[in-house]
Amino acid sequence: MISWIIIIIAAVVVDQVTKLFAVHLLGEGGSVDVIPGVFRFTYVENEGAAFGMLSDNRWVFMVISTVAIVAMLIYLWKFRPDSVLACAALSMIIGGGIGNMIDRVAYGYVIDFLDFCAFPEVWPWVFNVADSFVCVGGALLMLWLIISIVKDSKEEKKNKMQKAETSDEKDKENGADAGQ
């Protein structure tokens, strides 16, 4: 359990520290090329949810986010999956969610600054470290679900085959008994 708490705290700390650097180094509206034409740091105040969605419904989103974070914390604490991958994924999502929630409560917006500008038609959004934790955690959670489904499917198939073999053996025994 301690390792999951460490992941959550690390996600929040890394997110908040990088946002402080963005505020102090870039300032409002500032932008610095890191890899010209590909990646830059661009200061953006995002009043909405992910990628600026729901900007007019900030409180609704904050309530939904809070409920989701609390639900994941309860799940992780009480019903912790046996999978390290699932627990790490949930911890990353929780940490990223808390990091962005701190901004929403403190400023009324989320500070974004990571800007992949190589393909603006494909990816026009600026994001932050917390968003990265949420997205990577979500991808890991989907991977865990796929692995779990495949594993369960294989196990179910194996059990059906074993049951069929046992049934065949009983039929053979019953047939041998009837012939005597």
Query: Strand count, sense and closure of the main sheet?
Result: 4 strands, antiparallel
Number of helices: 4
**Rg, nearest Å:** 25 Å
Strands, total number: 4
**Fraction in beta strands:** 5-15%
Order of strands, main sheet, comes to 1-2-3-4
Distance between the termini: 62 Å
Give the class from helix and strand content and strand pairing: alpha+beta
Helix fraction?
Answer: 55-70%
User: Could you give the order of the helices and strands?
Assistant: HEEHHEEH
Mean pLDDT, as a whole number? 87
Domain unit count: 1
What is the 3D form? Answer: elongated
Regions with pLDDT < 50 over 5+ consecutive residues?
none
Q: Can you describe this structure in just a few lines?
A:
With 180 residues, the protein is α+β, with helices and mostly antiparallel strands.
Topology, element by element:
Layout: H1 2-26, E1 31-35, E2 39-46, H2 58-78, H3 84-107, E3 110-116, E4 126-127, H4 129-179
Antiparallel strand pairs: 1-2, 2-3, 3-4
Helix pairs in contact: 1-3, 2-3, 3-4
